[in-house]
Structures are given as C-alpha cells and as structure tokens.
Amino acid sequence: MRQLIRGRVLDFHADPNETADNHRFWEDGAIVIRDGLIEAVGDHADLAEPDLPEIDHRPHLIMPGFIDPHIHFPQAQVIASWGAQLLDWLQNYTFPEEARFGDPDHAARIAGLFLDQLVANGTTSAVAFCSVHKTSAEALFTAAHARNMAMVAGKVMMDRNAIPEVHDTAQSSYDDSKALIEAWHGKGRQRYAITPRFAITSTPEQLAAAGALAAEHPDCHVQTHLSENLAEIEYTLSLYPKARDYLDIYEQNGLLSDRLLLGHCIHLRDREIARMAETGSRAIFCPTSNLFLGSGLFDADGLRDAGIVSGVATDVGGGTSWSMLQTLNEGYKVMAMRGQKLHPLAAFHWATRGNAMALGMEDRIGTLAPGSDADLVVLDARATPAMALRSERIRTLSEELFILQIMGDDRAVAQTYVAGVAQKGPSDAAIR
Amino acid sequence: MRQLIRGRVLDFHADPNETADNHRFWEDGAIVIRDGLIEAVGDHADLAEPDLPEIDHRPHLIMPGFIDPHIHFPQAQVIASWGAQLLDWLQNYTFPEEARFGDPDHAARIAGLFLDQLVANGTTSAVAFCSVHKTSAEALFTAAHARNMAMVAGKVMMDRNAIPEVHDTAQSSYDDSKALIEAWHGKGRQRYAITPRFAITSTPEQLAAAGALAAEHPDCHVQTHLSENLAEIEYTLSLYPKARDYLDIYEQNGLLSDRLLLGHCIHLRDREIARMAETGSRAIFCPTSNLFLGSGLFDADGLRDAGIVSGVATDVGGGTSWSMLQTLNEGYKVMAMRGQKLHPLAAFHWATRGNAMALGMEDRIGTLAPGSDADLVVLDARATPAMALRSERIRTLSEELFILQIMGDDRAVAQTYVAGVAQKGPSDAAIR
By the 8 A CB rule, do A275 and A246 touch? Predict the structure, then answer.
C-alpha cells in the first residue's frame, strides 16, 4: 500500500549543535509511504502522482515521531505523587504501584493506555522499564507488537531494598530476562533492554547476572539509572564499598557500552564522565523528573563537550508529563538555569534523530530517510488560543518550533503515524 | 438576581503553612450568589431552595478564582522568545513588542484577548503591568470594567535605558499615572497600581515622581521588580552608586509599604529581607519565568520564615504559561530544587486567598466568605486522558489537588465565574 502525506516537512540529518547544515525543510513537502516505510521525501510537486492517495496536513509541520528513551511503563498512575525525593518516592509510591503489575489483566489494560498516551503525544518509540514481573513486559510487548510500534523494553531486575512484592532473585531475573529476549527481541519491531533498575536494588550477584545477559546478547540494550540524587549516590556507594564510584559498579559487571542507557547522570565525577565517553555509554536527561524530584540540573553542554551522547526523555512517572514538547520546555529551563541555551532546532533534533542515535537506531527511526519506518508526528503551533495568539508573530521556522517547544502539549499533536498508520481520530487533514 | 452553584466546594480561611485548620470542604456543597456577591456557602442540603436556579458542577471542585499578582498585559505575544536572560530579553523582544501598544486599536484588541486567556485559565483577578502608553492602561481598564473583572493595573513608568518608542519622562509619567488614577482607581472593580518598571529604566527623578504618586494615593498599589537576575542587580547598583542595595533605591523614594508588590526577589541580601519584612513589602514568586530566563530559585520558605508575605504569579510573557496550575507545578519544582515542599493545600491557598492577602484584598476576593465578589473557578482533575488515568488512584482531596497542580492546564478549568457570571461556553454542568 502506498500513500502520500503532505505538509510542511522537517527532517534533520545532523546535530544543530555541531553544524549549521543540519536539516531540510519543505514548505510544501511530501512523504511517500509504502508498506509502512518511507519511500521518498521532498517537494510535493516532485512526488505527487495522479493515483496516489494523499493526506494533506498543511499548514502543520510534519517531522519524524518523537522517541522517548526513558519511561516507566508501570508508573502511569504514579505521576504527581507528592513531596518526596527519589528514595522516599520509590518506597512510598512507586514500589507499591509496581506490585500491581503482577496481575496480567492490570498489566494488559495499562499497556494499552500507556501506548495511547505515547501516540497522543506524538511519541512513536520508547525505551521502557517494566515492573519486576515477566508478565508486565509481556503485556507491553504484546500491545506494542499489535500496533507495530517500535518499543525497547525490559522487565526490571531488582532483588533487594524494595518491597517483597517486587523482588526477584539473581537467578529468576536472569531466567525471566533470557526468556523474554528469546520471545521478543527482534520480533517485529520489538527490542529487549536488559534492565537492572539501579545498583541499590540489585545484589552484586544480580548485577553479575545482568552482565552475563549483556555479554550473551550484545545487540540488546541495557538500561539503568546513574547518579540522580545525592542521597542515592551515598547509599549506593555504601552498598558497594569497593567501587571507585557509582559508574564503576556497572563497569565491574561489564555493562558499559554504546548500548547502555544511563538515566539521569546529574552528579557525575570526572572519572565517570571520562569513562562514559570512552565506552560510548549514553546519558539520558529527564528534565521534568529532575525538577519534580528536586534531583538536580543535568549538564547537557558539559557532557556533550566531554564526548558523551545524550538522549532526552520524559521519565514518566517521576517525570510529570507524557509530552516530549513539555519535556523540551523544561529541558530548556534546566539548561537556562545552567546558563546554557537549547535552540529549538537542537531540541527537535534531540527528540527525534538525536534520541535515535542515542539508541543506535537511526537507520530505522528518527529521520525521514528513505527506508526508515514511517513513524511521524504532525505538529500545530496554533493548537490552543494562547499558541495561536503568540503565533501571529512567527517570522521563522525556529520561532514556530520554539512556540511548540515552550507552549505545546498533546493538543499540538495533530496526528501521529506509526509505521504509516494514522493513530488519532479524524483531524482537519484533507483526504483525497 | 440569585442563583446557586453546586459542586464539591473548597474554601481556605487560613494558611496551610501555619495551621492545620485552614480550609472547609463540602463534598456536596453550594454557593448562593446574589447580584454578583456570595450570599452563602455550605452544604447543598442546607442552601437549596425550591425556586432558586441551580448549576450543578459535580463532581468538579469549586473554589475562589485564581489571582495572578504579576503579569504583563503587552507581553501576550512575547511568550516563548528564545535564548535570552533578562536584560537581553527586554531589549531584543519585549521593548519592541510593547512599542506596538501606542496604537489604541492594537491595545484594545489584545486587552480582550488577554482577559479571555485569564478566564480560560480560571484567573479572575490580576495585577498587570501595561506598556508605557497611557492608552494601553485605558484599553485594559476599559475591557476589564466591561466584564466587571477586578483588575489592578498601571502604565509602566520608564524614562531611560529602553528604546525611545517606549520612553516617557518623569513629568509625563507622573501626569499620565495621575490622570489614570483619577479616571480608573475605584471605578467599579478597577484599581490602580503605580508602576515604575524597575530601577534600571527609571531616572532618579522618575522614581521620585513615583514616590510622590504613592504618597498622594496611599490606597493605590505600587508594583515593580527587584533582584531577578545577577546582571540586572549589578547594572542597577552601577546606576545608583549611593544605594545600600537594590531595595534601598525604592526605599529612598518612599515606595516601601504593604501596598508594594516586588516581582521576583530571588537574589536578596539580608538587609533587604529584613527591611521588606519590617515594611510589609510583598515578594512575588514567578516560577515559570524564573526558570525560563534562568534567573534563579526563589526562596519561598526562607522569605516566609523571615516574615515576608509572598504571592505567586505567571509573569507572562517572561513566564511561559497563562495557567496558575502550571505556575504552581513549576513553583513546586523550584521549591523542590531548594529542598522545600509545596503542599497542594498550600499551593491552592496561595493562588487564591494567599494572593488576595498579598494584595490586601482578601475582604473582596480570594475566599468564599459571604459578601465577597463571586469570582469562582471550577476544576476537573479528570480533564485529560492522562489526568483521568492518574485520577483513578485518588484517595484524598490533597491528592486530587496535586494532580490538578502538576498535570492541570486550561483544560482542567471547567468553568470560571466573574462576579457571578459564567465566562466559558456550555460545559457539562447541569442547569435546572
């Protein structure tokens, strides 16, 4: 099946932080989709064919769908839990909530609602922590596979310091992860992430099991958390007294590589920064979460200058919004508080191609390159009265993007396409 | 005319930071309105009358309308201007934008849209900076008076260091302010605020003129800015080399009193804090603006402990949202970054009765006390799919309020009443 999506098309081919030649923009653009893949992108005048069905999203912007590289599937109902920093927040709210995901019916219901929220916000791929229960990962993969949506996910490994309902063991976490990898990794668009929650909730034996899994499955991602909160760091180092630093705990278990996604990375020591750069380990910036939990201000420019590749993510439910637009809004603010400037071109590159590169998946998602999966978001900078009023004064594409970045939310997402299939109901797009 | 508004009614009578006996809540509550004033509040069973018209907002929450004590009327189209801290932001974006308000037609159009945005967000009163042009204040007062909406506003006084299009003189600013006070202060619900923008844009002669106006009109508010940004402070002190500190500039001109509203107050010295407390001068916290412009983290608990009364405000267009809910969201985050906790009861008190007390207007607005103006906001914690999903887990009123605070925006405002008159179109309220 072929169709043409028409609109004002934006695509990045390089990082705006590195070069001025970073994007292509077609004011009257088109994307030709064949069987869920992008066949061509360019001017509408060059790509239109008499018998090719068209959906016209003008005057809205079309770009690659957003990628959310750090989100917790079982925390949809934990967002906005009051008054705690990280460790209390986990004990008081999150672990009890995650305990509910041992129920396959609950996990299946929330999996559907979770994906609904992603596409409502223009997010077409995510890297998700599931609960400790194998069933929770099965529920998420099943739902994502049914929608043909590229999901990277894994069951959390955690065998101590939580509550018994969400504890596994080193052996069971190895076995369950292994079984999930065999069942789901590479099935359609699903990919597995080996997921030790963080050093506090894993025994040394469990981290060794995670390392064994990573060695046995070098094409799987590994995701965990690093240096989010000062109390977390102190507690972590007390549990691993021989470690040189927090990162060293993961390093000693063979987890460092360009497949490792490290959530937060706020309070890093110099050795950790150097070692992350050397090993290609990724840092994932979670601005709404970092502000909400009072964790600290991520040093985006500093880590980039040190050679570390970063992603930017919602971190629902420590994060307060499902929206990558709101995430970029608060990302701008966190960087502003550090005297750094997040340009809208850099921001939208980050949420698309940048995050795809952080995952090493830029050959499949994050750009409009022919051959990529046709995951798209359609954005309307006039979606609300306040945005429309502000948008009267737009003079440049960057200004339009910045209004979306600072004032946008799910209302600004006019449509989301996953592998070429529209996910939202009737919009103002014209179909002929 | 009498009518009854039914819903889940919340009203504060004390500050949750000070006492546990701070609010009343009626699960099936009612507010009786007569001629735009609150006649009674209580249980619906006690207040219903056979022939009294009712509007039923259950299951939504009804509370006093929000008060926004620091907002810039001419900056509706400046929100989300990229990449600057305060002084550059003013020069590059704000002063040119404000220059447009010399055109009475433009000012009148934006005045209507400005009030539309306030009521769409549940804000029923605001304290607004107008542009330097007398016509801009006339436009705002005219529009607010026509809606019977309590507005405190003033034309900005600024006679240097901006651009010529928005400069007045010490004498003309005195004359124009005086004429506006005579025309508008006390007319219906309108009140005047004497408005020297800040020390940088006023000559000593102009600040003396502002002090003369304040002495001649002790029932007018005075609004200005204080210690928002480190570069601003340094520049200010270079312009007033004899001042002991930034606050002293205003003090020497007789501006300190409990009618003085000082926007930002982030980087205060000990003497300034003590002197603000002694004189009753108010500090206004503008969280979305402070983060957006990278200004700094307001010390809410510290200033309260020092005896200073604070308000919380949007500061549109340095602020990024018209919504007091979003403002409380980022207020929570700023305080979290300081290790402080903004409880939802304290937050909603702050946006209503707390801000009314900062203005010394708690006898008229900010509570549901009989005799007050019937300015109300109706809030729906299930307004969006993400909120509805989260709200399945609500167990307490505080949790419901916190979901509104962290996840809410204008969609959570089901209705707004100004002096008893509904401002939004048809809602799901039942009318009989």
Answer: no
State the virtual CA torsion across B268, B274, B279, B282 in degrees, nearest 10.
40
In A248-360, beta strands by DSSP E: 260-264, 282-285, 310-312
Q: Is 0.95 surpassed by the pTM of this model? A: yes
Residue B373 lies in a domain: yes
Looking at the fold, whether A51 and A79 belong to one and the same domain comes out as no
Write the CATH number for A150: 3.20.20.140
CATH number at residue A7: 2.30.40.10
Does residue A285 sit in the same domain as residue A270? yes
Label residue A1 by pLDDT band (50, 70, 90): confident
Structural domain range at position B18: 2-65+367-431
Which residues, 6+ apart, have CB-to-CB distance to A88 below 8 Å? none
B225 and B293 inside one domain: yes
Question: How far does the CA of residue B82 sit from the closest CA of chain A (Å)?
Answer: 7
CB contact under 8 A, A82 and B398: yes
Q: What ipTM was reported for this prediction?
A: 0.97
Does residue A244 lie in a domain region?
A: yes
The pLDDT tens digits of the residues spanning A192-233 come to 999 999 999 999 999 999 999 999 999 999 999 999 999 999
Report the residue from A82, A117, A337 with minimal CB separation from B294: A337
Q: Is the pLDDT of residue A427 over 60?
A: no
Q: Which helix (H) or strand (E) holds A25?
A: strand A23-34
CB contact under 8 A, B320 and A339: no
Cβ contact, residue pair A293, B336, below 8 Å: yes
Among the candidates A322, A337, A356, a domain finishes at A322
B400 CB neighbours in chain A (<8 A) are none
- Domain edge (last residue) among B322, B345, B378: B322
Residues B96 and B213 grouped into a single domain = yes
* Same domain, yes or no: B125 and B267: yes
Judging contacts by C-beta atoms under 8 Å, the chain A residues touching residue B293 are 336
**DSSP one-letter string for B129-163:** E--SSHHHHHHHHHHHHHTT--EEEEPEE--SSS-
Residues B25 and B151 both lie in one domain: no
Minimum-distance CB partner of A407 among B120, B297, B320? B320
Comparing CB atoms, the residue among A330, A333, A386 nearest residue B117 is: A386
Contact check, Cβ <8 Å, B386/A322? yes
Q: What is the CA radius of gyration of chain B?
A: 21
Q: Do B77 and A390 touch (CB under 8 A)?
A: yes
Shared domain check, A117 and A60 = no
Contact B77 A322 (CB under 8 A): no
pLDDT at B431: 64
Same structural domain, A160 and A279 = yes
Min Cα distance B335 → chain A (Å) is 8
Taking the CA of residue A8 and the nearest CA in chain B, the distance in Å comes to 21
Is residue A373 in some structural domain? yes
Residue A77 and residue B410: Cβ atoms within 8 Å?
no
Calculate how close chain B gets to A308, using CA atoms only, in Å.
Answer: 24
Domain-located, residue B29: yes
Instruction: Inspect the interface and report whether the beta carbons of A77 and B389 lie closer than 8 Å.
Output: yes
Of B79, B385, B406, the CB nearest to A80: B406
Per the structure, how many domains does chain A have? 2
Q: At what angle do helices A134-147 and A104-120 cross, to 10 degrees?
A: 40
> How near does any CA of chain B get to the CA of A182, in Å?
32
Indicate the burial class of A203 (C-beta count within 10 angstroms; 0-12, 13-18, 19 or more).
middle
pLDDT digits (tens, 9 = 90+) for B392-412: 999 999 999 999 999 999 999
CB nearest to A113's CB, from B83, B389, B399 = B389
Q: What is the pLDDT of residues B325-340, one digit of tens each?
A: 999 999 999 999 999 9
Q: Is the pLDDT of residue B347 over 60?
A: yes
> Do A77 and B329 count as a contact with CB atoms less than 8 A apart?
no
d(CA B383, CA B410): 9
Other CB atoms within 10 A of residue B373 CB: 26
Amino acid letter, B157: M
